[in-house]
Design goal:
With 353 residues, this protein is α/β, with parallel strands linked by helices. It contains ten helices and 13 strands.
Length: 353
Amino acid sequence: MPHRTITVLYIDDDAALGRLVQKILGRRGYAVEHVLDAASGLSRIEQGGVDVVILDHDLGTSSGLDMLAQLRATEGAPPVVYVTASQDLAIAVQALKAGAVDYVVKTIGEDFEVLLVSGLEHSVEQTRLRRAKEAAEREVREARDRAMVLLAEVNHRVGNSLALVSSLVRMQASAVQDAGARAALAETQARITAIGNLHRSLYTSDDVRTVDMSAYLETLVGELGRSMSATGQTPTIRFEAVPILTKTDKAVSIGMIVTELVTNAIKYAYPDGEGEIQVSLSRDGEGATVLVVADDGVGWSGQGPATGTGLGGKIIGAMAKSLATSIEYAQQPRGTRAVVRIGPESEAGVAAS
């Protein structure tokens, strides 16, 4: 606006005063157009190209306040300097509340010119600042949108790559004759799948900062069941969850804990390969997230697996530490029940949807 002539629309039913204002502001370098009523003023504004409106309070058959209300409801309407001969401050308050940028009282002599020019310049500057702010906010939104698209694409590519790695591990496992090696490869595949599923969840999410744990764990548990059934171990896995949004880094830890606990249950709880593993995710009365993995198998004390390298236990411990919590093994008549409680203060941003 400062680099071109400012177009001012003066709306007043006084033709003589309109010519005077055109003369006053013309000397200051403004291009001034004058109309006599609100309808003509609105029509001219709709045509575009008006930078500032100077609006008189008394328009004969209507009030400038009525026109202010119409302008306020018009998107992209120019700023308004309100002018009146009345000394009543209530009119000024009404005009400013209705959206006027400034207010000028008509007087005789040079005072009116000074006040009018000051109000006009103030209006122009306010408009410049508002437009600069809107442009900056628009640029920030566009940059954020571009970053979100790029991040989604990264998650998509990472998810695809991990899915490929998981498939290669599964192919390798099917070619291995040693049962122990085959089981170890199946566990590795499950861990890769847990992370890959997270990236796929982020790719389809509206907000990559959070993950819908219900959908994520349902997919994860389903793939764990299919993966482990390929090794000849076929317990049923039942999953229940309420919708819970969790920060991405927290979701990784929870997913890895579920993977290890379910894998351990499949490996050790059912020597005959039959039974039911229950996985649930819920909120307790204090707002904490509660994860439960339970089986009805041979039982485990929680002091460490009877066989194996103990890598799964180390992973569970590390993930629980990152969540500022620990694994509790509840006593029950049969099988094992592992409980992970993540308090609201530890979740740092986990929220129910």
